[in-house]
Design a protein that fits this description.
Layout lengths: L14 H5 L6 E10 L11 H14 L4 E5 L2 H5 L4 H9 L3 E4 L12 H17 L8 E2 L10 H13 L3 E2 L4 E2 L6 H9 L3 H30 L5 E6 L2 H16 L2 E4 L1 H4 L6 H4 L9 H8 L10 H6 L3
Parallel strand pairs: 1-2, 1-7, 1-8, 2-3, 4-5, 6-7
Helix pairs in contact: 2-4, 2-9, 5-6, 7-8, 8-9
């Protein structure tokens, strides 16, 4: 997977809508992928402990959150249904991330629909009064071509879904293996270096993704942040929330963020598929900053 692959910068047809300035404060919705398990974990650390730590930081900050579920993990690792119960009990909205986190471009339309439907019992069981009909494409893979994109959107529409786009992120998943290695070796210096790089990545993503939004929309949009339920991100979550607050953001729900016209192509699936961020930039004739690639450095730490 490429670092910080970001979907969701749809170009609106009405330029007057795009041109309207957005008033401060900045807004951001926090979304967490790969519930209940995003491995590897440090020795002795369980998915339950990771979620408990992450939820505690979000609750302390009064941050609304949407988590995206791969229900196959509960079959593979009995007992991890307790993780979903933790998130539900904390007031999180739980959305659909596909039963087994498969690439759309490797599936038929029928297989995609099966992945969608098989995930639903876990969501219905914990839905309560919340609208759980949010879908996050695994790997942010919206299809190999326009035909598949349209077909998948039709399936989602028929089942009542909206798509949870992603408009900011910093590839937090890339830190997962390195953190597990450093924790296993009790390498405090290695962990400190991971923390430094993680904070730098968060801060750089704020700059880069705001710049991208201004080039594509000529304004700030309510951003949708992608993170993962990993041990490293649970460890860093208090700092992450503090960084966004210090940068002027306030936290909103996914539904509130995607009520903005910029997300219409993801909430109204009768529309044509919106272009990727790269394609949107090409259509606009603008150049976007390539995100930093930390993969080589992370692979070496505590190796």
């Amino acid at each position: 997977m490429m670092l910080r692959v970001i979907a969701g910068f749809a170009v609106m047809a009405a330029s007057s809508t795009i041109a309207q300035p957005r008033q401060a404060p900045l807004e951001i919705a926090v979304t967490i992928d790969d519930l209940p398990v995003h491995a590897p974990y440090p020795p002795g650390v369980t998915p339950e402990q990771v979620s408990e730590q992450m939820i505690a930081a979000l609750k302390a900050g009064h941050v609304p959150v949407t988590g995206f579920v791969n229900a196959v993990r509960m079959q593979e690792q009995p007992g991890t249904e307790r993780v979903l119960n933790q998130w539900h009990d904390a007031g999180a909205v739980l959305g659909n991330h596909g039963w087994a986190h498969r690439h759309l471009n490797e599936m038929t339309v029928a297989e995609f629909e099966d992945e969608l439907v098989k995930d639903e019992p876990a969501l219905k069981q914990r839905g309560g009064g919340a609208d759980w009909h949010w879908f996050r494409y695994p790997f942010l893979d919206e299809g190999k071509d326009e035909k598949q994109q349209v077909a998948a959107r039709q399936v989602l529409r028929e089942h009542g879904y909206r798509v949870a786009a992603v408009t900011t992120g910093f590839s937090d998943w890339a830190w997962t293996p390195a953190y597990a290695r450093c924790a296993a070796k009790h390498d405090a210096a290695g962990v400190a270096e991971l923390e430094r790089l993680y904070v730098a990545a968060v801060k750089q993503s704020i700059v880069d993704d705001r710049e991208a939004a201004h080039k594509l929309y000529r304004r700030d949009i309510p951003y949708v942040l992608l993170m993962h339920v990993s041990a490293m991100s649970a460890h860093m979550m208090p700092q992450v929330l503090r960084i966004y607050r210090q940068a002027g953001y306030r936290f909103v729900s996914l539904a509130a963020a995607e009520s903005d016209p910029a997300y219409r192509g993801y909430t109204d699936l009768s529309l044509p598929p919106p272009p990727s961020r790269g394609e949107a930039a090409r259509l606009k004739g603008v150049k976007l900053i390539a995100p930093p690639d930390y993969s080589g450095t992370l692979d070496r730490i505590c190796a």
